[in-house]
Amino acid sequence: MIRRSTVVLLFLLLAHAGVLASYAKPPRVFLLDGGELQKLKDAKATDATLKAWLAEIDKKATKALKVEIGYVVTKTGLPPSGDKHDYMSQAPYFWRNPDTATGLPYVRRDGERNPEIKNFPDHDQMDKMVVTVEQLALGHYLTGDERYAARAAEILRAWFVQPATKMKPNLEYAQAVPGQNTGRGTGIIESRGLTRVVDAVGLLQGSKAWSDKDQKDIQDWFSSYLDWLIGSKNGKAESNAKNNHGTFYDVQVAGFALFVGRKELAKSTIEAAKKKRIDEQVTPDGKQPLELERTKAMSYSTMNLDGLLSLAKLGESVDVDLWEYKSADGRSIRRAIEFFFPFTGGEKWPYKQIEPFDNESFYRLMRRAARKYKDAAFQKMMSTVPAGGSIAR
Prior knowledge:
Radius of gyration: 21 Å
Order of helices and strands: HHHEEEHHEHHHHHHHHHH
Largest sheet: 2 strands, parallel
Helix content: 40-55%
Strand content: under 5%
Distance between the termini: 5 Å
């Protein structure tokens, strides 16, 4: 996967190279930095280190041309609606009940993924679509290769627009628990990757393969999905979630609102996140208590922090500063980073983590944050963080 961290590393290399050239208009992206992408695009012909990284991006995009994409209509099972165009998935941490003959209702085993979820392929197919479109769009923007844009556009039309294959704009049947429900608000976290599709679309604008009609069609889909997120029972439930689910609900609402031109909704969502997310989720000493309760507390603390950093980046588009926000008693994004950091350097983690934790997942967040926190104290922490890794996942 080409991660945001890869682009961040390229930006840092660009700054080191002293490249200042830019184009007339940056791409319309929200989680990526459009201005820096402009500079990166121009730098590819002049800086040897950047050329090597860009060659790897090009290689990934070339491979993405051959990726086969399945769509929601290709699943064998039917959602409760009877319409294969509806997305459906099963809750990953729920298992057959050992105390009943039928196995119903399923019971929760936090952090343990039930392999039965593979019987419902929509989630995996969506993730594959997101990664593939992202790789193709970035490859097109940075190299100008129209093959990448054409394939990305083809996939996007099939997933979001074409009547025969498109997904309906809802997650009504996501993360269902057998014997309990046919879908939950919790399932909305499965569409968080669509915020990356929004940026991919921005990288395609101006290509021969992406028309004004394409832009309108996909914005119409996201507008409908945004309305569902805000107005549905499942969406309202996820909005009220106190942990990473609530954070990524806000990331989606704000990101999609920016994409479809509802700037005031994006701004109010991100402004509210100061108290609704940071104040509620981060303690004055930087802990994230609801994530620490999980059986994979390191993983979920990192995941929620990823969401908070994404909200901070989106806030830059509406003049809301979450990077420097601090409550009266010291709750902040930065404090959450500072709390977690020592545990990547050998300090013993005092909470549960039932599977190995890869420090790189946290280091990627630190590299993103380091572009905002340039003071000596933060840079001292960064001095022990390894340089960015390969583009390869």
